[in-house]
Amino acid sequence: MKHAILYISILALTFSTACKSDKKEEAKEATEMTTETEETVTTPKTTSTEEPAYYADKKKLTMALEPKSDSKVSGNIVFTQDNGAVTMVAVISGLSEGEHAIHIHEKADCSSDDGKSTGGHWNPTGEPHGKWGDDAGYHKGDIGNLTADANGHATITKVTDEWCIGCGDDTKDILGKAIIVHQGVDDFKSQPSGAAGTRVSCGGIIQ
Q: Has residue 26 been placed in a domain?
């Protein structure tokens, strides 16, 4: 009888030890699985969308247009920069009735009588001439056409974030360039300047 009780006690102790060992193994495995899971968790990366420093600069620049090529075309243009966008408002007089091209040219040099001292269209990105926004390409100076009334008066307003005033970015900075008004119409396809004809008014974009 004593032997039977002893045998039962040993079995119970063995079973109890085995259960504790199994629980320890299970706890160890659960910990390892948790650790592995934690190691594979990644935090999504955030991208920075910081604006260029000049976006905070509010600027205003006023310039005058003077007649060229024996015309009587003159006017005033105001450029304002705010929140990274430039607004151009041009008021021009002395034009013949109808459409006329207006562009930004390379140099703020209106010294020649025909306005050709300003060079060609401002085209810092090396694109073909075209209508502003065309997928096929356009110059940063391709403003387009304006329309004069029967009295020869015309106005045009343009707003774009592809220009800046004195920001130092060669692909956007309009300072040191010139505005040219042409006698003809920009056809938006003839290279390199839209076959707009004679330059009848000129003004340097300078501070």
A: no
